[in-house]
Request: fold
Amino acid sequence: MSLPPPAEAGIALEDVDTPALILEMEPFERNLRRMTDSLKESGVALRPHAKSHKCPEIALRQLALGAVGVCCQKVTEAEALVAGGVGDVLIANQVVGERKLRRLVELAQRARLAVCADHPVNVAALAAAATAAGARLDVLVELDVGAGRCGAPPAAAAELAQQVAASPGLRFAGLQAYQGAAQHLRSEAERAAAIDRAVAAVQETTALLAAHGIECERVTGGGTGTYLLEAASGVYTEVQPGSYALMDADYGRNEPAPAATLAFEQSLFVLATVMSRPAPRRAVLDAGLKALATDSGLPLVDALEGVRYVKATDEHGVLEIDPSAAAPMLGDKLRLVPGHCDPTVNLHDWIVCVRGGRVEALWRVAARGAVF
Ligand SMILES: Cc1ncc(COP(=O)(O)O)c(C=O)c1O
Reply:
């Protein structure tokens, strides 16, 4: 059974059923324009990460404002984006396993697709899948630039690039150099130091590639916290910020930077209803762990002084109310700022687009649950 959306276009925000994912269109549109404007002078391409929103409607708006394509993390995410009209997708991640590789090369015949690799066994498997399907696949070698997640160190990355370049069915398309651990470092100085180290690792690798006569046409990386640093490095050719379109409470905790990063506004909220008022200082919302991700902290209550979201259980969110605060009443609807936008979006089927207090449109989170 496919469940009905929590709203219809035209109704007032107060009438939206809850918990619901709300996108305030005005700040959202300003965020998209700000991102495009902030890169105008740099000559660096924008390839937003669509794992934040998982929504082709949003990807198409990013492309209309000059993005060269989008990133995603999973083959099924790429399938959902391509089905929604996106023609150029980088899977900024490793794809391992025969079934996934078959889907990957099938999709590569229908859209401009690229994928990352950081291990020789995976490169061989990519080449086997591509040649079996008669496809040609763009492969970026992922470099570990300090995040301690995926990625090979410079010397191994240069060897992998040689392997890719020599593999039938594959084309070496550049380096993926994303420093995920730098995005939420709170001060600009810490972020800058981390990206300096990332840039040095990229330079070391491109020098090794050049020594082997391999051209590196693309260096891609950077998120909402650091993308201006990568863009100014003279080394990165493309940046991959994702959260900037929606934002979240955790990005809100980054110290103000002189750059435009923190000019991005909160556009994503979870609308929740007060479902119980069991005590004068306590209210309970209908939005708990199944409506909000809490990996980066609990949500913030928007525009209500002295009211804090203090505990999330499966279907409940407990609010603590200061004695001096205007206490919410049973049935009131409150807007919450999620701690982390990406996994929060993945808990919802629909994005309820709101402008001026009215529902303007409903966009499907088409890649919700696309984790294969
Ligand atoms: C490979 C990669 N690129 C870009 C991003 C975008 O980062 P953000 O959403 O912080 O802008 C992520 C996020 O985790 C990522 O994993």
The CA atoms of residues 288 and 316 lie 4 Å apart. The longest helix spans residues 188-211. DSSP finds ten helices and 17 strands in the chain. The chain has a mean pLDDT of 96.
